[in-house]
Amino acid sequence: MRVVYDCRYVRIGRHDGISRYTAGVVGELRHLVDLVVLISDERQLEMLPAGLRWRRISGPTSVLEPLVALQVNRLRPDVVITPMQTMGTALRRYKVALTVHDLIYYSNPEPPHDLPGFVRVLWRLYHKAWWPQRVLLNGGDAVVTVSHTTEGLIEQHRLTKRPVVVARNAADLPERSAVASDPDAQAAARSIVYMGSFMPYKNVETLARAAELLPGYTLHLLSRSTPADEQRLREAAPRATLEFHRGVSDEEYHELLRRCTALVTASLDEGFGIPLVESMGYGTPVVVSDIPVFEEIRGEAALYAPATDPAAFAERIRSLEDPAEWRRRSALGREQAERFSWAESARAIAGLAGELTRRARSR
Predict the structure, then answer these.
(1) Phi, psi at 239, each rounded to 5°
(2) Can you tell me the distance from the alpha carbon of 123 to that of 146, in angstroms, rounded to the nearest whole number?
(3) Phi, psi of 7 (to 5 degrees)
(4) pLDDT by residue (tens digit) across 77-87?
(5) What is the pTM of this model?
(6) Three-class SS string for 297-310?
């Protein structure tokens, strides 16, 4: 069984969520199937596990995308897995599984700012109705999604007649020896970390206002920010201590997790939340909005607050100043993080690929 995995969405230089998911899955999937990956730029290989077999084809935003199968057919795959749902499926001679990470942009229609202008226009049009999503998903043979929460939404909105398989996000966990080396110092650090974008649905203003209610605390905002982002948040919480890092390396990020009191996020909607698993892996408690997908990920390990209630966030964060409570949440978090693994997700995808191949051969 030859499986081709579409790695053309891998970011160059720095992962985003879909990019990290792709790298994590293919790193394990290569041990289970005869794997070839697709790229559109050789620099993407720097962000992927070493030693993968690869082929270069046109990019996912190219005008050639609707007929991309004409390029992929040459590899003679049994199954193609793509981490998005927009890969062209016309004229293919293989089975294909499309991935849906979330349905955020139906209720939060603003597209990511780094997309080309014409793609941003198409993005807005695409998310004005459910039928374009149904057309794309039913053009494949199966659908992969990253959480049971999104699986439920796909069923609720009747988005596909194809089978749906959950292959969850995960994180590369540190060894236990790297976890909470000085828990009392972390509990007393009065340092909170946010890792994520500044899109409206991320609701970062609530975190800034919560920090304003916590004298002596610093809110570290790690992702790349624009001057407009920074001005908006400083105006929303003028007395808060906000530190904008404007992008950090993985090493810097992990070091901050080792030293901070908590990781925080007040998202109004998410498809998953890899930073939560990363934080749990380091034994660092997480204070999150009480949305369904975070309850799925964090279980009893989390501290929850209503998404738009800064005072509730501040109260939950302040409770971690108690070293005993910090230690308890830390232990629960590490235990919860170990329930997520790229190996498990790769096994789910390999099982799906095997089933699609058996169906095709039986016909």
Answers:
(1) -100, 0
(2) 21
(3) -105, 20
(4) 999 999 999 99
(5) 0.90
(6) HHHHHCEEECCCCH
